[in-house]
Fold these 3 entries.
Entry 1:
Amino acid sequence: MKMRLSPLSPTRRPLSRRRPMSPGARGRAALGLLALWSAALHPATGWAASGLAPLGTGAVQNGLAGAGTADAADAFSSVRNPAAGARLETHLVMGLDLGRPDGRIRANDAGMGLGIFAFSSQSQQSVSGLLPGPQFAYNRRLTPRSALGLSLNFAGFAAEASGGSATFGGSTPMISARCQGLLGGGAPAPGSTDALGLCGNSRSTLKLQLAQGFLAANYAHNFDHGLSLGLAPVLAVQALRADGFGALANFSNDPAATSDRGTGLYWGLGARLGLLWQVANTFTVGAGYQTPIRMRGSDRYVGLMPGGTLDAPSSLHAGIALGPFARQRLLIDVEHIRHEDSRALSNRVDAQRLTEQCLLPRLVQLSLRRAPAAGPSPDCLGGAHGAGLGWRNLTVYKIGYEYTHGPVQLRLGYAHSERPMGVDQVLASMVAPATSRRHLALGLSWAASPRWGVDLMLQRALPEAIDGRNPLSQVQVQLLPPGIDASSDGTDQRLRTELDVWQLGLGLRLALGREHAR
């Protein structure tokens, strides 16, 4: 079977030595670049149907709602499937994504009674979403059968909520404190006392920002019978900032490393594997896998996140590309993301266990000044079983349609998944709403010449909301056996988070030389 090379244009036309840096030096350089980029760009917002990760990379894939594992459209295809580089000619692709979010959080009145934590009755605008940022990918053919590539792409989110207040201790005399800020990170609210020091007495505006950059160098090789394989080592760098969590220090294993400590920098190593098999001229199969990436580095927020870092989860995806009709193609993908690889993403907020093993002992310690200090607990913040975002593993289904007319390509796409979190995890959703399940996408490419072209995409995460209860707002004392019942029931505070996101992507493709052809 003849192997066909993918070109640069929409009609699939092609697009002094230095001492090598050590892995440690590369990591430090990449961390510095990410820190500079993170400080220079203000995060816009949106959440993908796939949780933290965007649906695809580049305007072409995102115009198909992320479908394209079996496609070698441009150098960005190697991010999802490193084998794609063997089907591509030498070219450079640059892109930029911009997002416009519309998020809102709501909480009704928590009522009177015995409680541990409740949000103030409020309805306020919140900002949460994907970080926009530059991205690029480069592919260079080495021989008629092999190619090398380099790519840099970003993922992440940002959540921000100002105003509001939080109440600790319900209406219990001598314990109750109402503190400024969504999570009570500020000073006591006007007219409220704080006898036990439950307020954070620091920044009241809640802000959680995560920027992840993935730098990959991929090698791809064409074998006989239409089979291509690819491998890409990945260097991941991460910048994390958390403000407004100061009141949670009382319930952390490391109170000094919980909130308001600036930007922490992290790095990790992983790999991507890819397969592309051209079964027939109109039928291609593709598959790709990214390993989990364990992050290491800063200890600024070891008291906030389980395990002290936010690891990147593994993902497995497969797809097919069909071209039964002239100038038309259909792409279908399935992606599975294992959020359980990251404790910070997957650890659930188990209200009963959290109350028994952490919240209640710490409140008793604060109430009884002579009580012995409560030691570290795996169920407190920063512990192995401490609260995370409560995201579950996800399977995302994507379908895209592409039509070519001369130098122009038009694309449509749709993606669907379950929500990353269930209604029982609405507490975490108030901090970082991940409500999107359905995405619609439009895409357009224009080949201005055989040397260069432009890509556009517009994507919308359809409006979604999560309604649930705050089980910590009303708890009951049990006599037999003695203890506290923090299970959710109809008396608990009602919470609602919702999100609607628009995203625009731009891309520029440049062919960079003559190619080997088979």
Entry 2:
Amino acid sequence: MKHIYTFRLSILNLVAIVFSGLNYSHIYYYTDTLFCGKIVKVMLYLRILRSKPIRAEFNVGSIRDEEGGCVEYSVENEITKVCSMVRENEFANSVLIRNIGCHLPIEKIFVYLDKHVFRDIREVVVFINYAIWNTRDNLCGNPENIVIFLERDLWSKYLVLFFSEKGLRVIETLSVVNSFYRNILSKLYNLVISPRLYLKLLVTTRGFILKYRNRERIAKVKASSICNGYPVVSAIYTGRKITLDTKERSDFFWLIKSEIPHNRVLIIVDYIHKDNLLSLFDLVKLNPVQTRAPLLSNKDRPRKDEPPVWKPSPLYKKELKRNISLLVRSCISRGIRLNTMFMHCLMDMTYFMIQYSYWYDFFVSNNIKVNLNKNSFLTDCVPFNVALYKSGGVSIHYQDTNLECTTILHSIASDIAISFSPHFQFIWAENNSSLDYSVSCGYITDHSFKDVKENADNLRNQLLRRGVDFILCFFDENSSDWRIGTRSNKSNVDTYKYFLQKVLSDKTLGIIFKPKAYDTLFHRLLPISDLIKEARDTQRCIFVDDGEDLISDRYPSETAQAADLCIGFLTGGTTVLEAYLSNTPSVFLDLECLYSSDVYKWGRGKVVFDDKDDLYRTIQKYRQNPDSIPGFGNLDPWAKERDPFRDGKASLRMGQYINWVYERLADGDTRNEAIEYANRNFAKSWGRDNIVKFK
């Protein structure tokens, strides 16, 4: 008997299944189309279908390979390979893309297009891996009995080719509308037919009224007036607290030990989530400016004391006209057929050029020489970085999370990547990033470890006064019921419930919870709200988060240094890395079973556990006699790979490198000369092996 999986349950897919002549026992689907449910009922009533289609319920963390390990990393590798196939066979041979590549860096254009393919195929690849796991483990079937129906689409032939080589039977079916046109129709539906239009009109009207009332308060400024025309370093504001206090998390930690004058730093604000933002920037003597990039503006309503809004100069229209003309010439040259693939590239590149033209004007008008951005992996940051490249500036991406697998999601199109260590070079090399150099500086916020120690001691004493003799610190990595997510809300509830029960049953045990998304945590933990209250009433259970802004103000190292042992998930691992670097023994709880991780080769039962009971038994044994488990909580081999310095000077190295690039560009050197100068100085001060060239 066959097991049928169809990503999209549509009328044509149902017809294809009926006429396939297959003898099947199950039909699973990922998503369905409008009215499909009613059609299925009719087909079942007429006995045209042999089985009722079942919606596939899963999350990535629950899908296992033949060895019982999580497939998350292998799925990302598969997606990367399919994206590479599309790049080599479609984009590299596109006349349109080649014409654009004569004027703009084509490798960065490829990164932009890769990300669109990644967005389109990611769920499909995950679903196919679910099909393999579900058939093998839940249906006790053979993967040879799997038949996958995919609607014919832009990328379907590459998915068919890739998975057919893995021994799966994948059938392309007809589609009334492929994804390219479906996306357009969906946008038209939302704008014209959907009832949400009326709500949108009300919100928009209200916004215009508020804007009119506050028209004198919201300043529109020309670019040159922001920093008086001086060469500028810009940085993206991400919503963290606006401070230069080393005890609190901030986007501007790199400025603390840098020699760059604060009046030469321009903060780009594209989202305002609170009032009095301008006054807060004034306190740290930084220059903020709002940007309203076309097609990207997410402005909701005027706020009190807003930063000024930058007004594009005539250069924007001039550059946009030149770039759109380039697209038009490409359309009419060499007898190009206007097929679906060409239209897809044309639409993507039109969007790209609109963004690129805006940012090119912004960088030139503001005389911006260097830009810092930790979110360069976002799709819309590619035209942003290309614009800075063409204006003669240098884009610098800095790593702020631990990266464990190669994925197009993390690919970047920057000039420089500031990494924790040379260990992470495989990420940029294998995920098709466009990068000139990687510079290793260490764990970027290690300067804070000593400064938060006093707060950590106060937190620890708060628990010790309640009679505890051992303190755990638990870092979660957020959760959701999104099927592409790693950890479900149910799994998160079970984990919190387990540790809360242990605290209630042991009066000598204290615990500190440091959640990643505090604002939604208690909604996600609603099923155990009574248990949480009971544990908090003991005053031996603390949930830490004081953040007023979008992200917590408190460093993980603050809570880590208050504990005797830190626990975090193997997926991610950034908080565990920070905890261990701040000298607190730390272990991984790997409920997703990432057995492909190198940590399992040397740390099973000592630093990594795939079962909560095994972990807790080991903790109890460690509490009774720490010498009974040599190496428990010792992550030295893992941590040394990720921070070879471990000296608290990462932000100093980062600030020095940025300053070296900036000062040469400010003196009139070309971007390549400035980068070479910074590389020479950095190599002399910190070692040549910490600079890796990619081109």
Entry 3:
Amino acid sequence: MAEQKKVQEQDINQLLKVRREKLEELQANGNNPFEIMKYDVDHHSREVKENFEELEGKQVSLAGRIMSKRVMGKASFCNIQDLEGNIQSYVARDSIGEEEYKAFKKMDIGDIVGLKGEVFKTKTGEISIHASAVSLLSKSLQILPEKFHGLTNTDIRYRQRYVDLIMNQDVKDTFVKRSRIISCIRQYLDGNGFMEVETPILVPNAGGAAARPFDTHYNALDEDVHLRISLELYLKRLIVGGLERVYEIGRVFRNEGLDTRHNPEFTLLELYQAYTDYHGMMDLSENLYRHVAREVLGTTVITYGDVEIDLSKPFERLTMVEAVKKYADVDFNEIKTEEEAKALADKKGVHYEARHKKGDILNLLFEEFVEEQLIQPTFIMDHPVEVSPLAKRIPGNPDYTERFELFITKREMANAFSELNDPIDQRGRFEAQEELKAQGDEEANSVDEDFLNALEHGMPPTGGIGIGIDRMVMLLTNAAAIRDVLLFPTMKTLGGSDSSAKAGKAENAACAQEVKAAEVIDFSKVKVEPLFEEMIDFETFSKADYRAVKVKACEAVPKSKKLLKFILDDGSGTERVILSGIHEYYEPGDLVGKTCIAIVNLPPRPMMGIDSCGMLISAVHEDDGKEGLNLLMVDDRIPAGAKLY
């Protein structure tokens, strides 16, 4: 195996060397492609195909990347890929000239060319371009993945998105749709009288959401600042200033884990409208989702995974208390005290912390028993005040707030309030958040004196909403993971910052697997558990069913700092769920696509309300007095379900 890999690397290095030699020859002959400044394009591939009857026999000019080439003596075929698709070209020596044809034959897969020629249809009926001129516009010095297998390694796809876009047309389509979705949102809001604004990214007080911020430092001001975790507090200042309808689509940053639904930096839409409430925000968000789906996809009935989602029907509306009663068979209206709430949580097996109050327990029950049921669009309304520090209390029912979250496909897609505009109440809630922060809650807000000063000048009754653009795009493009809708998702640097360049070069050469620089490992301070002295018989050992499993998805378990939830392919055709307490050592997004080892015939074990069906195998040791752990990962060529002996 090692010898085969060495030969493969030698072959790749030789191919790369040949490409550079071709470039040197071009440059020596005065044909440096990198000196070409422009090329006039008047058509794209799809345009030619869709308008063939009109364009047949006419001259067109296209440009794109050579994705395949068949050289056959005096005539050849090549396939050119541009933004909109691909088209075949017939390149003949007698049509472009003998010297030009020799130059064409030396071109490589991946080269970018300009193509002029006549539109025609081959004998087999394929719409093509009969080339009259082929110009090399850029020389590709790297090797694209093999055509029929494409780029399938998800880790490299995310790290080298440029190659992913070249090789996978559906990926390109996803990001074209993303751009259209954002454009459509802007058009809808602009058409409804909203004004787009921009607010600071670096802020002295990161508020407006329950999240841990990233910290940085202004050298010029000698002041510590944070990257914003929401857009809310500055937009509300603008409502105070008299801008009655404002919105911002911008990046926000939360210093949290990575999984299939979360990325530390993401795109958020927040909007605020004076003189309306959360009912107005419900109507707006429902109409916005429906409008964007219709404009971008041409339908309001969409498919996500294997589920049909109907955005055309009125979205269901339930209070949080009603939802918990419906799905958990618990009438929280009967719970009068914090003690009763915690006793109920104990009975239901819901984990909570000592600092949690009655409203927190209701929210935990909702997360445990309700969220997984909310597949079709559903508004969950009237959240407890304990988890809604910026929302207005419901008149006559001050334990609850005028707040809603929109859920689709079990995911929160929007969060909205009747915004709190009472500065005295707001100060009290900020101070309650300060107490939580003092108790160790890293996601609690701090008192924002300038925002309170703004509220004291008077803010009109206002409705506000936040919509995660990335999750909306996931829904409308049927994407399973947030990284599939982010052009450049957050990834851990390979081999650390010092060796990232070397690792990147290794990826470019192979473009099929991660290559990490070999490192010398010091085991001198490592301790391992003594070997068991007690023997077991072979029959007992053989009853444990060890299998190779593929990680299809991995995410942090809510309210747990240790547990990761794995969705695994064990070769049976049915997804297997296993929970493992290894979050301290791994970020969930880094494990997707890996091949691991699990015991699959253990009885289900309930953990945080989730049945864990098996156990992933890790290697543990002690290194210089600290516990170390490595999840056992094996060659990805081992199929799911392969049994270990």
